[in-house]
Amino acid sequence: MVRSPCHWQMARQSDLFALSNRYFLMSEVMKMAIDDGSTNVKVSWIENKVLKTIISPNSFRKDWKSAALRKDKKIYNYEIGNTKYTYDATSDKSLATTHVEYQYDDLNLLSVHHALLQTGVAPRDVAITVTLPITEFYNPDDCQRNEEKIEKKRRNLMRAISLNKGELFNIVSVEVMPESLPAALSRLIGSGCNEFTKTLVIDCGGTTLDMGIIVGEFDDVSDVYGNNEIGVSMVTDATRKALAAADSDSSYLVANEFIKRRHDMSFVRDVVNDESQIPKILEKMQNKIDELGSQVAHEAKKFAKNPNRVYLVGGGASLIFDAIKAAYPTLGERVELLDDAQSALAREICLYTTEEEEVYRESPVMAEVGDE
Predict the structure, then answer these.
(1) What b/e string do you get for 130-157 counting C-beta neighbours within 10 Å, with b at 16 or more?
(2) Which domain holds residue 113?
(3) pLDDT (tens digit, 9 = 90+) per residue, 343-366?
(4) Which regions form coiled coils (predicted)?
């Protein structure tokens, strides 16, 4: 059981976590928190006092897919304007989402609607809270909210989209929050740290690296930092190239799954056609993982030389954990990989926006990615 952070004194963070009054007035509208990352979209919502979370991988290509041979397999063919798209888990023609402009384009609109359909909730009116990388949410010169980009994100998700032979959720309201910092809410509040404790939160995602320094139990946000050139995509791209060289061209989704399950040799052999190339593929992938860890550690030390504790969140958190522990050797166990780090941000935003005092948390569920 977890308590919602909105029932603690959080007034001093009203600027960072401001949500419009209309959002709370729509009691008949379902609220969902969405961390719409470039690689996976994480959706959290509360149903009968249970906090539920699903993770929906992004893998879309242009044009429609033919009907499935098996009746139990759902085909997701979408249309935005005059452009047709389909969800395709394995196609090597899947469209790249690992760039910042993804936050404002068709693929973002597709990924959010597709993820909503994976929740198992019947389509209905929904008020959503989504995220933007710190580099997009704040102005670089004064660290104030970038209202132009926040509004651009809102407008993008309010655009029209249709699902062939299906019904979509009706998005009636879009609120935007920054990535990284909210993911540590539950862990920090009630943790017993003093008002001078500095906590570094590192969010390593598919496209961007976001960091922030929190003072006390979220009493203040001392500083924020973002880098849109460092992310797991550098590992994904290297893995796709290595797989292609082994006659095993893959989608971004398959490449990311390959990274995640790289120690499962049965899975590795299933993906790689030229098995003689497996050692070389794994070596190239590990080199990129090490490079990612080294880059994140370097940026973290520049940004926060001596924090009192470090929390790691985001899809790439487990890949960089060892490198960050080595970068802050005196902290020991105070360098933490948060539970279910990939979906932490969506869960915490959901808890923050709920009016429920107590909810019970279920483990996140990965949406089915297999094709027919």
Answers:
(1) bbbbbbbbbeeeeeebbeebbeebeebb
(2) 2-232+289-366
(3) 999 999 999 888 777 888 888 888
(4) none
